[in-house]
Design a protein that fits this description.
366 residues, alpha/beta, Aspartate Aminotransferase, domain 2, Aspartate Aminotransferase, domain 1, 2 domains, seven-stranded mixed sheet, three-stranded antiparallel sheet, 14 strands, 17% strand, globular, binds 4'-deoxy-4'-aminopyridoxal-5'-phosphate, aminotransferase, PyrdxlP-dep_Trfase, Pser_aminoTfrase
Length: 366
């Protein structure tokens, strides 16, 4: 049997085994073509079926109303950081950005490169080293705002908006890179949602983008290079250029698997259980494991950050965990400590194994 580790990487991250096994089975002869999906034309009916299924499953799992379009793009969140203002902040339009972490800050900087002062900071918790989210009374959104941009899960710092920010009736644009499809939610306040697939959805190289029709209509720019225009991708059903076919194929496998296990409701229950186990252990040994996030209500269900009493113990923890078959636990370089990423493919049993290890580690080193 193939040896598989327990994967806590922050992204690219672990994928559900059945989705990978399906790819393995179908690798050399995809849909009776005598070729792998990587070798088939993106204009073939066999590929088209996968493309359509990935889009249909996204709509079904997320319960998207008919006025939303699903786009399968490239360039990761990074390209989206620029595409969003290029398409949506034309003709003196203004937007408000909520800065809650490393990635939210990057999104804001990139938007400012495009739209300068028309990109405003609605709130920032940089002074608190992004160890919490802003409170409702700290968020200032202009009445003339075209959208409020926020990052629903801050991958580096381990904070997450369990209730989305209160911004009146201004539509949201949201970077969901690190918490796409971990739970059901009401999509109707969102004009656009985007994120790379490489955490909850598939391999890197596919950027899932969901755009509401009125936002698509706002993308009137004719002078942008074609690839940067959301409207063209929507009109061509994400087949304007050669899409990342293998990535979309894996995305399809992951989504089909997600559906087979009960969809986002079932996935949410498992994610909540994992978070409960991990934070339970951190809180039980709060003299040894120190959480990075200062307000419990802001703790992420996807990325759990904590420190041991010394950086040496952090290193030892990572090394010993690796020996025990668990990888990807080293904290992000700017923060240090430990980061446990528990995306959808991480099972409750994986987390139980880690928690047992954490208990043992305190006993030996605490
Ligand atoms: N936003 C968030 C919340 C992320 O976690 C990441 C990747 N870690 C990015 C943006 C950047 O994504 P990409 O590398 O796909 O551009």
């Amino acid at each position: 049997m193939t040896h598989r580790v327990i994967n806590f990487y922050a992204g690219p991250a672990g994928l559900p085994l059945p989705a990978l096994e399906r790819a393995q089975e179908e690798l050399l002869d995809f849909a009776g073509t005598g070729m792998s999906v990587m070798e088939v034309s993106h204009r073939s009916k066999e590929y088209d079926a996968v493309h359509e299924e990935a889009i249909a499953l996204t709509k079904e799992l997320m319960g998207l109303p008919s006025n939303y379009k699903v786009l399968l793009l490239q360039g990761g969140a990074h390209l989206s950081f620029g595409m969003i203002p290029l398409n949506l902040l034309r003709n003196d339009k203004k937007a408000d950005y909520i800065v809650t972490g490393n990635w939210a800050e990057k999104a804001t900087k990139e938007a400012k490169l495009v739209a300068g002062d028309r990109v405003r900071v609605a709130a920032s918790t940089k002074e608190q080293k992004f160890s919490r989210l802003p409170h409702a009374d700290e968020i200032k959104v202009g009445p003339d705002s075209a959208f409020v941009h926020f990052t629903s899960n801050n991958t580096v710092e381990g904070t997450q908006w369990h209730e989305f920010p209160k911004v009146g009736h201004v539509p949201y644009i949201c970077d969901m890179s690190s918490d796409f499809m971990w739970r059901p939610f009401d999509v109707s306040p969102f004009g656009l949602i985007y994120g790379g697939a490489q955490k909850n959805l598939g391999p890197s190289g596919v950027t899932l983008t969901i755009i509401r029709e009125d936002f698509l209509e706002m993308c009137e720019a004719q002078d942008l290079p074609s690839y940067l225009r959301y409207k063209i991708h929507a009109e061509k059903n994400s087949l304007y250029n050669t899409p990342p076919t293998f990535g979309i194929y894996i995305l399809r496998n992951v989504l089909a698997y997600n559906k087979s296990i009960g969809g986002l409701k079932a996935i949410e229950a498992s994610n909540k259980k994992k978070a409960e186990l991990l934070y339970g252990c951190v809180d039980k040994h709060s003299g040894f494991y120190k959480g990075f996030v200062t307000e419990k209500a802001h703790r992420s269900v996807m990325n759990v950050d904590f420190f041991l009493p010394t950086p040496e113990l952090d290193d030892q923890f990572v090394k010993e965990a690796k020996k025990a078959g668990m990888v990807g636990l080293k904290g992000y370089r700017d923060i240090g400590g430990i980061r446990v990423s528990t995306y959808n493919a991480v099972t409750v049993d994986h987390v139980k194994t880690l928690v047992d290890f954490m208990e043992q580690f305190v006993k030996t080193n605490g």
